[in-house]
Amino acid sequence: MSLITNIFEQLINGLRTGSIYALIALGYTMVYGIAKMINFAHGDIIMVGAYSLYVFIGLLELPVIAAIILSVIVCAVLGMTIEKIAYKPLRKAPPLAVLITAIGMSYFLQSAALLLFKATPIPFGNVINVPSLRLGGITISGITIVILVVTTLAMIVLTLFINKTKAGSAMRAVSEDKDAAELMGINVNRTISLTFAIGSGLAAVAGILYICQYPALIPTLGALPGIKAFVAAVLGGIGSVPGAMLGGIILGIIESISKAYISTKLSDAIVFSVLVLVLLVRPSGLLGKKKTEKV
Amino acid sequence: MNRMKLNNTITNIIFIIVSYAAVSLIVTSGILSRQMTSLIIPIGVNIILAVSLNLLTGFLGELTLGHAGFMSLGAYTGALITVNTELPEMIGLPLALIAGGVVAAIFGLVIGVPVLRLKGDYLAIVTLGFGEIIKSVLTAMEFTGGAQGLSGIPKYTTYKNFTIVFIFVVITILLIKNLVYSRHGRAICSIRDNYIASEAVGIKISKYKIMAFVISAFFAGIAGVFNAHNIGILKPDNFDYNKSIEILVIVVLGGMGNIKGSVIAAVVLTLLPELLRDADNFRMLFYAIVLIAMMLFNNSGLRERMTSWIKSKKQVKTATGGE
Fold first, then answer.
1. Shortest CB distance from A99 goes to which of B63, B129, B294?
2. Is the same domain home to B191 and B65?
3. Where are the domains of chain A?
4. How far apart are CA B124 and CA B105, in angstroms?
5. What is the CATH number of domain A11-128+140-281?
6. pLDDT digits (tens, 9 = 90+) for B143-169
7. How confident is the prediction for chain B on average, in pLDDT?
């Protein structure tokens, strides 16, 4: 195989992983924009999405489409519930307290899954069967095509939703200034709930796509992609929706290139070094807005 | 004033002697099973870890999720020294302790300098990233034994020679306590409470942040060395994100910014899993609930409502009691 086709395949691999990161990063960014907090439990919602797909298809034997929709709903409701129980009472609390609660929530979801489904990996076959595509010397697997199409669609719909609909405007208003938005008659609580629901729904989609790529379920499957997606969100500029998409894709490509040409073991170290570098050189990220702190 | 200080010192010394006597009685007499007795070292290690993390999280007010990374640096450095050099224990162990602490402290400096620009969420995530970087580098390197781990470490600090661990626990507590009540400590706390104001009155924020990082990392490294020479084998996976969280749970349960609390919580949370062996699966769930519940209780106004409710009850009681 020539070097060029090899690089191309790596780029496509990167694009595939990167679009999953982008989907997850969107959830981080939206929640950060509105609630000004990092939802550490977001990565574990991916895991919940993957496990609920397994429950609906593997145990309850529902049709695939229904199972996917139900998994997304489960995650959206879970996201809203987490916000109601754990984050809403702490809106006026110091950031450290919120952060620790979020970590606790993430830990809670992981250990609950561990108790329910045990630590041994559950093999779970691929639910999406699409034939692979050959372009010249490059083979693009069916799952890659599905992932790329789904993420592109999700991003277009989300961008339209945020920019064109009334609820989307409400979200932008709340992230701009919570108090002013409330005075304009926006229901802030409902908007925050909606944001959590959308973010978690996207995480569920990401989880479903993720287990199509690596078909084994473990309770910690969401942790690493979650953290990496957070890196992607920071890379793109946290709070910025196009930034999350861009950051996710760049990070995916960096990861797959370093896995292929540098070292598999060190690829995680490289990804986190990217985070450190970004925060040192440009803490607001590629597309983020600079903020000056006022007394 | 001086007299009070003197009294305090005397009580402290008495307390240290009594607790040392109690510990040695427990270890030598064999009242408890061997399993419980051997927990004495993990307790000491966790106390050192929790107290040093408390300096960062409780007093400096910055959440770091890479404490296990510092610990692993100390553990590996110390273990590599005792494994590769043929020194007798009397020289090898102190050398390992110093080297482990110093290497961790150097990395604390290396990490502390770049994260000066960050705070809150970003700092937490960067320290988490650093912890993961350290872990994956340890896995990738040859001389650390890779993912199989480093084995054959001489067991210098098992429960039979708990004295040196005890001494270091005391040193850690005293040093961090004195630091916190000193001028430097007040500067560190002022950064937590309002960093803009403390910068305005001339406190050098960078200096104190780095200082806290370096000291905290040093003690985490020492704890790592003890841990390595107690277990005898090191694996990079033992020092992951979960270990950092475990230490954080101790600090949070004991109370952030409360050294005594950290010590008690370290003892309780090391003994508890051993006592509840059958419910080991629930341990993580318990940790998670502790984290969430403590934060909700302390920060959502629940605590104020509860105390005022208790007060009103008391008032009712005294009112009825007066009749």
1. B63
2. yes
3. 11-128+140-281
4. 18
5. 1.10.3470
6. 877 778 888 888 887 777 788 889 999
7. 85
